């Protein structure tokens, strides 16, 4: 059996995600689709709409055969580290290929971009560092360095457009794969209909996860988004609301986040991962002055600090993730955390269990590792944030919920 890997968040799983999974399987002629999925906190620095087990159920019901958790330290990181962790996991579980959605829609521009940056060599890395030192955000600094490298080549039109969010991630996936000399073959499919920031539009069947969440929170009803999600996703969300009442968002988590910022103060906040350059003082002032998350972010956001960068800091503040903890975990995944599988996925794992490059974990209590402990802690903090105003916070689910079999 041959497997193709995809890198996902499913926040929540929608029709576009189903198209990605089924198209990846067809394009690569795979027997199995393996998804490396972020846990309860996501790459753009926000709590997941629903937890990793609910999203695993959605995925397994709609074209995915195995779901592996991307550890917290990678799932909440900037694009290069996010891609590095995910690609290493797909390589470790013996995928023959990986497939990502992109605005360009063909793999050749990404291959060309890799070649151009390799030819630029150290000047590319230097250009990024210099742009960051001048106050540009990392994504903008990368784009400026990339434009400079394109200007030095004779075929700039053949390269990928790295100003587009999915193209940026796709580039980093391919770069990470090259870095570890993986034998996985890269594929891409066009992202269809909705871009990341697009709102859900009645009449379309594809909407971005951002648009779906925005429509839901504005209406507080699943009826406004059910046309954009598979039936099983709808069923999981209905069951979630009955059991958990709330959906994950910073607006809901803000009272606990605000409490944490004000309790810790600037001195302790400086120890938190990604908090730097004196922003801890601004965070404390903004928390003291604002009763809402929207007001807080309005006070903190600037040209130097993008919305995403600030939210990553807030995620680490909320979970207590420090620079020292990040250093102890390192930059390489240490395990394959199994969240769920179909019967076909189970057959694949049984067939390949002796060939896996990392230990496969089905029980959290069976493995001791600082990265896994952080994953478990992050899940508990998510549960606390979700259920602090109810009687159903459900702390400790990592030890209670076995891998889902569908």
Automatic annotation (TrEMBL):
<feature type="binding site">
    <location>
        <begin position="191"/>
        <end position="192"/>
    </location>
    <ligand>
        <name>ATP</name>
    </ligand>
</feature>
<keyword id="KW-0067">ATP-binding</keyword>
<protein>
    <recommendedName>
        <fullName>tRNA(Met) cytidine acetate ligase</fullName>
        <ecNumber>6.3.4.-</ecNumber>
    </recommendedName>
</protein>
<feature type="binding site">
    <location>
        <position position="166"/>
    </location>
    <ligand>
        <name>ATP</name>
    </ligand>
</feature>
<comment type="similarity">
    <text>Belongs to the TmcAL family.</text>
</comment>
<comment type="function">
    <text>Catalyzes the formation of N(4)-acetylcytidine (ac(4)C) at the wobble position of elongator tRNA(Met), using acetate and ATP as substrates. First activates an acetate ion to form acetyladenylate (Ac-AMP) and then transfers the acetyl group to tRNA to form ac(4)C34.</text>
</comment>
<dbReference type="GO" id="GO:0005737">
    <property type="term" value="C:cytoplasm"/>
</dbReference>
<keyword id="KW-0820">tRNA-binding</keyword>
<feature type="binding site">
    <location>
        <position position="101"/>
    </location>
    <ligand>
        <name>ATP</name>
    </ligand>
</feature>
<dbReference type="InterPro" id="IPR008513">
    <property type="entry name" value="tRNA(Met)_cyd_acetate_ligase"/>
</dbReference>
<dbReference type="InterPro" id="IPR014729">
    <property type="entry name" value="Rossmann-like_a/b/a_fold"/>
</dbReference>
<dbReference type="GO" id="GO:0000049">
    <property type="term" value="F:tRNA binding"/>
</dbReference>
<keyword id="KW-0694">RNA-binding</keyword>
<keyword id="KW-0819">tRNA processing</keyword>
<keyword id="KW-0547">Nucleotide-binding</keyword>
<dbReference type="GO" id="GO:0005524">
    <property type="term" value="F:ATP binding"/>
</dbReference>
<dbReference type="Pfam" id="PF05636">
    <property type="entry name" value="HIGH_NTase1"/>
</dbReference>
<dbReference type="GO" id="GO:0016879">
    <property type="term" value="F:ligase activity, forming carbon-nitrogen bonds"/>
</dbReference>
<feature type="binding site">
    <location>
        <begin position="7"/>
        <end position="20"/>
    </location>
    <ligand>
        <name>ATP</name>
    </ligand>
</feature>
<keyword id="KW-0436">Ligase</keyword>
<keyword id="KW-0963">Cytoplasm</keyword>
<dbReference type="GO" id="GO:0006400">
    <property type="term" value="P:tRNA modification"/>
</dbReference>
């Amino acid at each position: 059996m041959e497997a193709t890997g995809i890198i996902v968040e499913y926040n929540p799983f929608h029709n576009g995600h189903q198209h990605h999974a089924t198209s990846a399987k067809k394009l690569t002629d795979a027997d199995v689709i393996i998804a490396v999925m972020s846990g309860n906190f996501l790459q753009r620095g926000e709590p997941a709409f629903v937890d990793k087990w609910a999203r695993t159920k959605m995925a397994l019901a709609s074209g995915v055969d195995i779901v592996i958790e991307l550890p917290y330290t990678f799932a909440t990181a900037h694009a290069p580290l996010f891609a590095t962790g995910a690609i290493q996991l797909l390589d470790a579980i013996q995928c023959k290929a990986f497939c990502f959605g992109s605005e360009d829609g063909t793999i050749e521009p990404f291959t060309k971009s890799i070649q151009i940056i390799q030819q630029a060599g150290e000047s590319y890395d230097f250009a990024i560092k210099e742009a960051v030192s001048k106050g540009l955000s990392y994504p903008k600094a990368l784009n400026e360095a990339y434009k400079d490298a394109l200007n030095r080549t004779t075929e700039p039109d053949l390269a990928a457009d790295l100003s587009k969010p999915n193209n940026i991630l796709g580039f980093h996936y391919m770069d990470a794969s090259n870095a570890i000399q993986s034998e996985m073959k890269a594929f891409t499919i066009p992202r269809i209909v909705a871009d990341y920031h697009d709102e859900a539009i009645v009449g379309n069947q594809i909407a971005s996860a951002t648009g779906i969440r925005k429509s839901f929170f504005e209406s507080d009803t699943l009826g406004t988004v059910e046309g954009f999600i598979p039936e099983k996703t709808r069923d999981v969300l209905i069951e979630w609301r009955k059991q958990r009442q709330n959906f994950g968002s910073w607006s809901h988590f803000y009272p606990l986040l605000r409490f944490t910022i004000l309790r810790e103060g600037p001195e302790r906040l400086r120890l938190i991962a990604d908090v730097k350059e004196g922003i801890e003082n601004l965070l404390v002032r903004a928390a003291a002055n604002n009763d809402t998350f929207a007001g807080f972010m309005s006070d903190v956001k600037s040209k130097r600090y993008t919305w995403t960068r600030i939210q990553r800091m807030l995620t680490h503040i909320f979970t207590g993730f420090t620079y020292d903890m990040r250093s102890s975990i390192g930059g390489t995944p240490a395990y394959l955390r199994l969240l769920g599988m179909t019967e076909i996925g189970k057959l694949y794992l049984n067939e390949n269990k002796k060939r896996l490059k990392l230990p496969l974990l089905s029980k959290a209590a069976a493995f001791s590792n600082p990265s896994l402990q952080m994953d478990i802690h992050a899940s508990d903090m998510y549960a606390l944030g979700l259920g602090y105003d109810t009687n159903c916070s459900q702390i400790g689910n990592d030890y209670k919920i076995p891998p889902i079999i569908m």
